[in-house]
Amino acid sequence: MGKPKTVSTHQKGKRGEDRAAAFLQLRGYKILERNYRVPQGEIDLIASKNGSVVFVEVKTRKGSAQGSPLEAVSPRKVGRLSAAAAVYLSGHPHGDGCRFDVITLGPERNWLGLLKVKHFENAFSTDGNFNI
Q1: How far is CA 1 from CA 4, 5, 87, 120, in A?
Q2: What's phi and psi for 37, nearest 5 deg?
Q3: Where are the domains of the chain?
Q4: Which CATH architecture has domain 9-124?
């Protein structure tokens, strides 16, 4: 008998981002970029809807031992996301503006046993102030 297969943190994060992207697409968003990386930071998903660019941070938690998914979005993380977003916007048209959303998965589960998805629109501003 072999050891049970374990899933890496990277794989868990990828699965969460896949679910978040599907969640957004079902709600009419177009995914523009995934894992946008620049020296200033990384943005999990960049989407658009109704002419606005939406920068999305995705956080997944299977249990509560690490705290809530929202607690993982620190002021430092917000600063890096804002800086990466500025780089993206400098090279891409952004129509009616932009916003920063957070999508969390878990630790609660839905009726199918899947990690529950929550979408926090306009979760924070570029100056680091949280709106949630």
Answers
A1: 9, 12, 50, 44
A2: -120, 130
A3: 9-124
A4: 3-Layer(aba) Sandwich (3.40)
Nearest residue to 9 via CA among 45, 74, 59, 55: 59
Write out the two tokens for 59. Answer: 């956080």
- Full-model pTM: 0.84
Distance of CA 65 to the CA centre of its chain: 20
Residue 30 is encoded by which pair of tokens? Answer: 């177009």
Distance between terminal CA atoms of the chain? 48
Segment 12-29, tens digit of pLDDT: 778 889 999 999 999 999
Q: To 5 degrees, how large is the angle CA 71–CA 74–CA 80? A: 145
- pLDDT of 112-123, one tens digit each? 777 788 899 988
Distance CA 83, CA 76 (A): 11
- Tally the residues of the chain: 132
Sequential DSSP letters for 95-130: TT-EEEEEEEEEEEE-TTSSEEEEEEEEEE-TTS-B
Task: Considering only residues 5 and 116, tell me which one the structure prediction assigns the higher pLDDT.
Answer: 116
